[in-house]
Amino acid sequence: MTQPSKRDVFKPVELIVLSAVMALFVGLTVLLATRNPLLSVIFFGVAFIVVLVVIAMMVLTFKPNKSEQTELDDDLPPSGH
């Protein structure tokens, strides 16, 4: 088997960081609007989970077209077989 590229390894981290940033925005907005830290943490958690699930569903629906697939295949190192 071939080693995954750095891009392939960090792709899940990118998605988690993106959802955390969006959830942080929601949490801070709720905190500034209500001045209730507990409510802010609850909204942060809910937003994090919702954004993570939505991003995961969007990634699952992605299907590269023919030119993108050949470009992806070109990036793979040749196998030793």
Quick rundown:
By secondary structure, the chain is mainly alpha-helical. It contains three helices and no strands.
Given the structure, what is the number of helices?
3
Element-by-element helix/strand order? HHH
Largest sheet, strands/sense/barrel: none
Low-confidence spans: none
Shape: elongated
Distance between the termini: 11 Å
Provide the gyration radius in Å. 19 Å
By secondary-structure content and strand pairing, the structural class works out as mainly alpha
Q: What percent of the residues sit in helical stretches (DSSP H or I)?
A: over 70%
Mean pLDDT, all residues: 87
User: Which range does the strand content fall in?
Assistant: under 5%
Quick one: how many beta strands?
Answer: 0
Task: Describe the structure in your own words.
The protein is an all-alpha fold and 81 residues long. Helix content is 79%, strand content 0%. Helix 1 runs antiparallel to helix 2.
Which characteristics define this entry?
single chain; 81 residues; 3 helices; elongated
